[in-house]
């Protein structure tokens, strides 16, 4: 009970049946034990006589303060009913594959409708093919001779420390069949040689099996070119480290999935790899002097994709011949990542003028059949 004033305290509450003495309603009200629990501050109603009739019974509520003053607390109504809940199953039938006996299981959720405060404790005399825990019935094939059947299941419920078996049973039909399990894979994503983290995600769809994929291995001539793992029942396929790929080749691998305790071979997968288009920042034209002793340093930058890194950089054969010959005679260019150094000795042998420099850029992990990306700038040689 809650008092409207915070400066007073309640010591007790008297609850008196509202029905008049000598009436049938009063006789039924007296079959209830309604009292005030001072520790919790709540009014508690209990059935004292199981013969009480269904109905709603009223009790006059009188609060007693510490001073002994009595205050009206209104009316408390207690409803008595003998309505039991009904159990419901999320599925009326389950199908189990004999070929997966002992490994395959199907879960059926159990809920209650009607009745308040009831909880499911279990079921009476469950067959060997069924087990119950935490609101779930689990169906399995218990032995080699099991052929299935229809089962009437009576739930055991509890409320306020008492238990009862529901008279209305639910029916669950368990069917057994014998077919080879199989699967299909739905692919999403692509493999990009310039992005080592790229992957194809395959979502399995199982046939003649209820379960989750737990493992995978790859078979076939191209199996060593790829790596695969299962995460939360989904297959993630990536490129193997240190391998070279062609964007024109269709690679073939055969997945073998593990689920329900069995290895199941699927259809061969056709895998293609791609290479993102690499874009380089435009190079500025440069000026050098015949007499300088420091090399020319030209810094290249990849603008996209973000995952691409520099691999090989070479001087293209279509660069001005005199420049190319002078650089090669001086020992060639030096490359470190995207930094290219042209030897100063090359400039001393060049006549003053303008020269076209073309660089071939091959990204790291580029496909074997991919052409280099070209970038150019004009080099001016002065005395």
Question: What does this protein look like?
Answer:
This protein has 383 residues and is mainly β. The protein has 4 domains: 10-80, no CATH class; 86-177, Immunoglobulin-like (Sandwich), CATH 2.60.40; 182-274, Sandwich (Immunoglobulin-like); 279-382, Immunoglobulin-like, CATH 2.60.40. It is built from 3 helices and 34 strands. The chain has helices spanning 24-29, 321-329, 345-348, and strands at residues 10-17, 32-37, 42-47, 55-65, 70-80, 86-89, 93-97, 106-113, 119-123, 130-133, 136-139, 148-153, 155-159, 162-165, 170-177, 182-189, 191-192, 200-207, 215-219, 226-231, 234-239, 251-259, 262-265, 269-271, 273-274, 279-280, 286-289, 296-299, 302-304, 310-315, 334-336, 339-342, 353-363, 373-382. A 4-stranded antiparallel β-sheet has the order 6-8-11-10, with no helix packed on it. A 4-stranded antiparallel β-sheet has the order 16-18-21-20, with no helix packed on it. Strand 31 and strand 32 form a beta hairpin. The mean pLDDT is 94.
């Amino acid at each position: 009970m809650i008092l409207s004033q915070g400066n007073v305290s309640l010591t007790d509450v008297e609850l008196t049946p509202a029905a008049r003495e000598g009436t049938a309603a009063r006789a039924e009200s007296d079959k209830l034990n309604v009292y005030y629990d001072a520790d919790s501050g709540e009014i508690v109603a209990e059935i004292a006589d199981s013969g009480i009739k269904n109905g709603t019974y009223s009790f006059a509520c009188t609060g007693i303060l510490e001073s002994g003053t009595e205050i009206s607390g209104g009316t408390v109504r207690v409803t008595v009913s003998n309505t039991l809940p009904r159990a419901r199953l999320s599925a009326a039938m389950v199908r189990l594959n004999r070929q997966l006996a002992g490994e395959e299981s199907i879960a059926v959720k159990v809920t209650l409708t009607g009745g308040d405060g009831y909880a499911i404790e279990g079921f009476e005399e469950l067959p060997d093919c069924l087990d119950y825990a935490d609101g779930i019935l689990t169906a399995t094939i218990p032995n080699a001779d099991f052929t299935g059947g229809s089962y009437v299941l009576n739930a055991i419920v509890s409320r306020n420390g008492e238990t009862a078996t529901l008279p209305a049973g639910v029916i669950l039909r368990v069917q057994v069949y014998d077919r080879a399990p199989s699967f299909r894979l739905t692919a999403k994503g692509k493999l990009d040689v310039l992005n080592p983290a790229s992957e194809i995600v395959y979502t399995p769809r199982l046939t003649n099996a209820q379960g989750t994929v737990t493992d995978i291995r790859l078979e076939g001539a191209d199996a060593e070119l790829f790596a695969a793992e299962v995460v939360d029942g989904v297959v993630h396929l990536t490129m193997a480290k240190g391998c070279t790929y062609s964007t024109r080749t269709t690679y073939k691998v055969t997945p073998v999935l593990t689920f329900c305790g069995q290895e199941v071979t699927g259809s061969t997968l056709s895998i293609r790899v791609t290479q993102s288009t690499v874009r380089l920042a435009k190079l500025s034209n440069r000026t050098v002097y015949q007499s300088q002793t420091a090399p020319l340093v030209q810094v290249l930058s990849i603008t996209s994709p973000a995952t691409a890194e520099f691999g090989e950089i070479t001087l293209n054969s279509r660069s001005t011949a005199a420049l190319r010959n002078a650089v090669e005679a001086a020992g060639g260019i030096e490359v470190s990542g995207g930094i290219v150094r042209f030897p100063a000795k090359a400039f001393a042998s060049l006549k003053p003028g303008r020269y076209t420099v073309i660089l071939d850029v091959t990204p790291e992990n580029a496909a074997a059949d991919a052409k280099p990306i070209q970038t150019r700038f004009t080099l001016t040689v002065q005395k």
